[in-house]
Amino acid sequence: MTTNMSPDNNYASSEQELEAERLLERIVDSEASSEDRARFELLADRESLLWRTLALRQQEMAVLAESVAQRIEGAEQIDLSLGDERRRINLPVTLSGWAAVVILGLWWGLLGGGGGEHGSGVDGLLPAANSGAGALALTAQEYFRKYLEAGRREGLVIGELDPILLQTEPMSDGRHRIRFVRRIEEYAVVESPPAVGEKTETPHATEGRQEEGARF
Amino acid sequence: MGSRDSTDEELITRAREGDRAAQHQLWRFHRRWVAAIVLAHRPRSIELDDLLQDVALKFIGKIHTLRESRAFRPWLRQITLNVCRGAGRSIKLTLRLVSDDRRDATHREPGSVAAPVPATGGVHQQLERREAAERLLQQALTLPIAYREPLLLRCVRSMSYKQISDVLGLPLTTVETRLARARRMLRQEISAAADRPRVESAGDPAEPR
Fold it and tell me: Residue A179 pairs with which residues in a beta bridge?
């Protein structure tokens, strides 16, 4: 788009157009200096269309800005709602997948779900099976607490570390469903060590913590 | 350096040291332009708010890794880009609580054209303006990323050339040039769209000839 410039200007038409363009952009963006504005007024005195161009560009930008503002207005609702509950724990190494598989297998086993997923070569890890008649009457959280209690009694479970929040989803009733990773610090006797790095300063979970679940 | 930059510097320092209140405040100061970056980079099928939430999580989880306070804006931008790119590769973030496919055959999100509503007078004009505004935004979102990003940042109120330059790591003159070119490209698109057979709105910001 070019503005119409009368042919009898002192400056080359293309140079004047370029200058006008630059000044227009700065004024639209509120970045023009007083010299810029004075220069623009001078150019506009010779070419009145510049005022209309300026008005149209400002309108265009205002429309776009309003559209963007509406699209990102949700940003005002995105706050750091994790607060102090999400503390970061510096582990020099992340437990490899085998531990998570074992835990998941225990979970499933305690719930009466699929078996055989506890990872091979792990010995002495499973707590005394509690798959009696009343087992399924407990909730998952109750099972989990019992697992921690049993593990501590047996000297296997040290405690639970702060969980890691992965995702939050608002629900229609105003609550939120969260997806998170539980982390349990514990000992295990294995036939061959997993491929993890050597731990140097591993923070220990505070013993005696028996929260209902993830603390958020 | 303006008073806002001084406040930022102080907040960033405290945030890096683990001050939760400072982290919250810092996020509130910067989340709008972060949202503009997400808007510029996000995969179409993923909600902006979802990605923004992820950026917030990463921000609070990694703020302690920020080496220099003055690198905060480009650092936060990089986190945002990483989240958007990761979302494009991962299916996890597409598990949003919607049942419908939000993309139609033309890859435009539903709602880009307002649903027809029997209206008269001012309401009708409002709808037309809103449609025109949405079309403008949709066209802006099709610009090359080098121009789209500074343009959307500029749309965030109080984002100066200097601040955009800080975020993008570009010289001021480059920011100014890219903004000018972005708007020129947008006007060309609008003109081309206006030439196509469609119902014209009185509110369309048509380019003078």
Answer: A167
